[in-house]
Write a structure and sequence with these properties.
This protein is of the alpha+beta class. Helix content is about 30%, strand content about 30%. The strands form 4 sheets. Strands 1, 2, 3, 4, 7 and 8 form a 6-stranded mixed β-sheet that branches. The longest helix is centred in the C-terminal third of the chain and has 20 residues.
Length: about 200
């Protein structure tokens, strides 16, 4: 369906890409959405145009009574295709996703990436550490995820590291940096902060 309406530069993204690259092609537990990345020069035009085209495609395929879609620009610039009957939930932390950002349990996220020369701006999340990693598709290949093959950009591991920081299974989120880090590093930082706090109180 995406091919039919002109999605010519598409790759797995975010949690789906991480599962394919660093989790042996097995879906990450509790990650119940499917992430695709689309490259375009103008995010806003792309969101509006492709939302309309996808709505027509879903209707033509007879899926519009089961699937809905919406564009959003609160915590992200993206298109969501979702099953309304699956229910909604809030995703923490609110400082990252917003107080009013609701999610559906069964969702396809169409993330957007804009290019400007050698700089790339991933609009999945509106946050300070957005990666300056330019996604290339000149040697596009496919990678396995949950037993099926999907397109992926060049150097996917480097892209994930630019997006998330540390991508190991033992990662923990650092709210100060907006990136993930190894659990051991996080525990060390907590102990150091406790020592500083104790020292300050003793003084």
């Amino acid at each position: 369906m995406l091919d039919d309406i002109g999605f010519d530069r598409v790759s797995l993204d975010a949690g789906s890409l991480l599962a394919a690259v660093d989790r042996n092609g097995v879906l990450i537990p509790n990650d119940d959405d499917f992430d695709l990345l689309m490259v375009h020069e103008d995010v806003r035009d792309m969101v509006q145009w492709y939302t309309r085209e996808l709505a027509v495609a879903l209707t033509d395929a007879g899926l519009n009574h089961r699937l809905l879609l919406r564009s959003r620009g609160d915590y992200a610039d993206k298109i969501e295709v979702y099953v309304p009957s699956s229910g909604r939930y809030k995703l923490e932390p609110a400082t990252l996703y917003g107080e009013n950002a609701d999610f559906h349990h069964v969702t396809v996220d169409l993330q957007l990436l804009t290019t400007s020369g050698e700089l790339c701006h991933n609009s999945m999340l509106h946050r300070p550490h957005q990666p300056r990693f330019c996604v290339r598709f000149d040697q596009r290949r496919k990678i396995a995820l949950h037993g099926r093959m999907f397109p992926v950009m060049n150097r996917p591991k480097q892209y994930l590291q630019a997006l998330y920081g540390y991508i190991g299974a033992d990662s923990v989120y650092n709210a100060d940096t907006g990136l993930y880090q190894p659990r051991d590093d996080s525990e060390k930082m907590e102990k150091e902060n406790e020592k500083k706090h104790d020292h300050h109180n003793s003084v």
